[in-house]
Amino acid sequence: MTQSLIAITILWGFVFIYAVMATMDFGAGFWSMIYINHDKTKATNIANRYLSPTWEVTNTFIVALVVAVYSMFPGAAYSLGTVLLVPGSLILLLLALRSAFLVFSHVADDYRKPLTYVTGITGLLIPGLLISVLPISHGPYIDFSDGQTLHLGKLFTSPHEYAFFGFAVASTLFLSSLLLADYSKASKEFEAFKVYRRDALIIGPISVVMAFLIMFTMKNEARWIYDRMMDDLPILLVSLLGFLVAGGALFLPTNKEGMKGMPRVAVIAVTFQYVLASYVYGRAHLPYIIYPEVTIQSGFTDPNSFKAVFITYIVGFIILFPGFVYFWSLFMNDKRYLRQKSE
Amino acid sequence: MDELVIARSMFGITMGFHIIFATLGVGIPLMILVAEIMFQRTNDLDYSVMAKRWTKAFAVLLGVGIPTGTIAGVQLSLLWPGFMEVIGRVMALPFQIEIYAFFVEALFMSIYVYAASRIAPWMRIVSLVLVAIGGLASAVLITNVHAFEGTPAGFEIINGQITNVDPWKAFFNPSFFVTAGHVALSAYVVGSFTIATVSAFKMLRSSFGSRIYAFHRKSLMICLLVGGVFAFLTAINGHESAQKLHEYQPEKLAAAEGLFETQTHAPLSVGGFTDPVTQEVKWGIEIPWALSFLAGNSFDTEVIGLNDFPEEYWPPLFVHTLFNAMVGIGSLLILLSLVAYVWNKLLKKDRFPKWLMWAFVAGGPLSIMAIEFGWIFACTGRQPWTIYRILSTEDSVTTSGNLGTLFILFVSVYAILAVSVVLVLLYYFKRNPPEKDITKAEASHKDIPLST
Ligand code: HDD
Ligand code: HEM
Ligand code: HEM
């Protein structure tokens, strides 16, 4: 494996981890808004219990992602930075409002509702804008003749862009409702569990339809990547199977308390589904970072710098890993936290 | 050209806004730690209440510090792609390591806040120490990038290509330790004097001898002690920073001092405004020979003046005022703590006079202004370069255009955040006055695991 291939693999890993964490995070914010008036179901409490300790960690991942791009592919960072000025700035603005208001909503009790609405709505827009980086990287909206210019008009009138946008929103809601169903089950919040299981069952199929829409529009607008993805059709089919397994797991046996389904299995199956699909997508995208001008070779950093950065990844991982495990055990796995009396 | 000005203003405002929250984010954890330790040593519940209240304020401030920092990090690539391409190739390490510092801070901050009642007392202290280290490390590391901009090292440019990259040499560039030290020390000054501001103000508003007065007085005293020590260290280290400028960026020092002619026995001009036409500092006070001594520890030191550089390389001359203001505030803060010490410990007076109390109230805002002045001095004083003598600001800026609308949007969002963060803090602390927390703490010792 060449150094640039190792680097892009690391980057892909970061993108994937961030994508999963962010969907949970943004989705939880959205659900906490939707169920804010359903005191009985505790669905909002569950969402907040997940969200409060995690948003900061999730946010750090997006910073890690940006830093990884410019430390491993500074050449690509130049083009990405130029092209993404407008969409990137919009994301930043929404993200700033969302993070701040999320924190404020936990402090200023009397204003919780309006603040939660800001958090919930921005939380749906951000994933849609974030994922727009992908269709942009497919090339058709960028003019390379005079420097690099993104044609916003062309981007925002393209069905391909909206297919991605819709997919991001649907996936956000799907993954987060699944995870929250699992979280409610662990917390023994029966009502909340029912609500989130129902939501997952409704939105799951929508997210798959959106994925098909992406492929469909891709065929017209970015033929090069469509053809390459089709070379890996068998893997895509296995990925679809993961979705079916997840659906099945939600209908599986009812436990003693009457909670129907095994959401944990569903979460794992869906994660598996997304890993496979994004692997196929990523492979088809290679070697281009921005088609057709920037490749992983042309954008790659100095080899000495890469070595140094790579070593810090290893050292950083060794240092941080126990911290993550401790964090997980306190907030995802500690019955005292999960089953606390909802205030 | 216009786009360049907008880009600079936009980034400058982002940084100027972020830096307030970031600096408090470095400074306040130290004060929380001091309060926790005082509590363990004295078993006085007031200190534990202080730690809790400061933590709340800190968590709210982080709610703005983190997203604005995220903006800063991403905006670097969006506005200055030319700059970040070089940084990516040569100076990626500090950014990379900073990520780990962010993670440490984020993980243990959540643990300290949301798991406080479920972890052992010693684990709370460990979490807090890790939060403080995480914040400090992120500040030190990002400042290292700034240090590199002034004293680049660890690479060569041959035929316009970056070669012979040595990332660790770039990391340990000549001004790293001095600059990072200055930012860290001054952040502790800001943290302690900002809390002192609140305490002093509350003391003025409550009657002498009351329970609440005593509470705020304890807080004021530890803040003045910590703040005074760090203000002193900041000044010593600032002197070293200036010596680094003398060595590595002489035109910046010349602009800071308004010195035009190269000379030994150079005078130090305090105050006033630099006039480029008459080539002198108007209305300033001149201290003969002092600049030479400060720059090189001897009166014979030759200090290079602006006239030795082509005029297009001159930094803007108003940095003289910024530099003076920062140093002036630093000296004032040292003086304030000294007066407080003399008044309280040597003269053994039981209370401070009103004018002194108001001076303490001013300390926090002044220290934040010093931070702003210091940064604007350091960044604009580097003009026209983003990387000294290697990359110009003009060549760093984005080619995208259309920055105007974005500029307005960002400024509006900062305005919203600034207003709402103040309102939220006021709301929360009005709802939860210290009386309430003290009563709660006294009623249930077991709520505070540290008391065991
Ligand atoms: C509470 C804040 C504070 C205080 C009291 C001081 N400073 Fe400062 N100073 C900063 C906060 C700061 C800063 C904001 O942290 C800067 C901006 C960039 C940097 O590296 O640190 C800075 C920069 C800075 C620089 C420029 C470094 C460069 O351009 O690379 C010099 C020469 C000094 N300082 C010197 C001093 C001296 C002699 C002080 C005497 C009291 C002093 N500072 C007090
Ligand atoms: C260590 C981190 C920092 C880095 C890497 C950095 C880098 C830069 C860069 C690349 C520019 C654009 C070029 C220029 O106009 O100078 C800039 C400008 C600026 N920065 Fe910094 N900066 C840092 C910290 C700060 C901080 C904390 C402040 C806080 C006030 C600040 C204030 C400014 C201002 C005001 C400008 C506009 C300069 C002008 O108008 O001439 N910088 N900085
Ligand atoms: C160009 C300059 C800067 C950039 C790019 C930057 C970037 C960032 C980012 C990305 C965050 C959010 C971290 C997270 O997601 O957890 C952040 C927060 C923070 N920054 Fe800045 N920053 C800059 C300047 C500074 C300076 C000069 C200081 C110190 C005086 C500082 C200290 C902090 C601190 C203490 C936080 C608080 C939160 C945390 O550590 O997680 N930053 N900054």
From TrEMBL, chain A:
For this UniProt record, give its keywords in alphabetical order, as a comma-separated list. Answer: Oxidoreductase
Asked whether the UniProt record includes Oxidoreductase among its keywords, one would answer yes
Q: From which domain of life does this come?
A: Bacteria
EC number, UniProt record: 1.10.3.-
The protein in question is named Cytochrome d ubiquinol oxidase subunit II
What organism is recorded for this protein?
Answer: Rossellomorea vietnamensis
UniProtKB/TrEMBL annotation, chain B:
Q: Identify the GO cellular component terms for this protein.
A: cytochrome complex; plasma membrane
Gene Ontology molecular function: electron transfer activity; heme binding; metal ion binding; oxidoreductase activity, acting on diphenols and related substances as donors, oxygen as acceptor
* Gene Ontology terms describing biological process: aerobic electron transport chain
What is its membrane topology? Answer: Multi-pass membrane protein
Q: Give the UniProt subcellular location, in the record's own words.
A: Cell membrane
Span-the-membrane segments of this chain are 15-39, 60-83, 95-115, 122-142, 176-198, 219-236, 317-343, 355-378, 406-429
One short Pfam name that applies is Cyt_bd_oxida_I
Q: Which family does it belong to?
A: Belongs to the cytochrome ubiquinol oxidase subunit 1 family.
Tell me the domain of life: Bacteria
Protein name according to UniProt:
Cytochrome ubiquinol oxidase subunit I
Asked if the Swiss-Prot or TrEMBL record annotates the protein with the keyword Transmembrane helix, the reply is yes
Entry's InterPro entries?
Cyt-d_ubiquinol_oxidase_su_1
PANTHER family tied to this protein: CYTOCHROME BD MENAQUINOL OXIDASE SUBUNIT I-RELATED, CYTOCHROME D UBIQUINOL OXIDASE
Q: Which UniProt keywords apply?
A: Cell membrane, Electron transport, Heme, Iron, Membrane, Metal-binding, Transmembrane, Transmembrane helix, Transport
Acetylation among keywords: no
The organism named in the record is Rossellomorea vietnamensis
